[in-house]
Amino acid sequence: MAVREALTTVRSLFGELIDERGFDASWFLAEERRDTGQRLKDLSQRRDDPELRQTMASVAQAWADASGSAPPSRVMMAYADTPETPQEQRRRQRYAAARARQVDVAREGIERVETALKRLNKLERKIFGRS
Fold it and tell me: CA–CA separation, 76 vs 16, rounded Å?
C-alpha cells in the first residue's frame, strides 16, 4: 500500500469515528481496519525523510490511542420499565467518555494526516518537479 493511500484511508476512518461519535472495540478489530496502525507504522519506518517519518508515526500513534480508548464490545440488555442500576449508569458514562476521547483523538489524527500529506506533497514536488 502506498503512503498516500494509507494516509487518505486513515483520514477517512478518523472522519467516520467523528461522524459516528466513536465506536466500540469490535469496529477496530474488523478485518479491514485491524492492521491500520501497524501498516502506518511500517510505512513510516521505510521513509527516508525524518519529518515525514515522524509525522506518519504520530498518525499511527493517534490511531493506537483511538483504538485503545474503545469501550469493549458488550451486549447490554435493557428491559422496559427496569431502572438502570448505578453500575449500569457508571458503565454507560465510562463508555460515553471513551467515545468522546476517540472523537478528540480522531480530530487530532486528521490534523496529523494533513501535516503528513503536506510534507509528502512537498517532497513529491521536489523530486518530480510538480507545482
Answer: 23
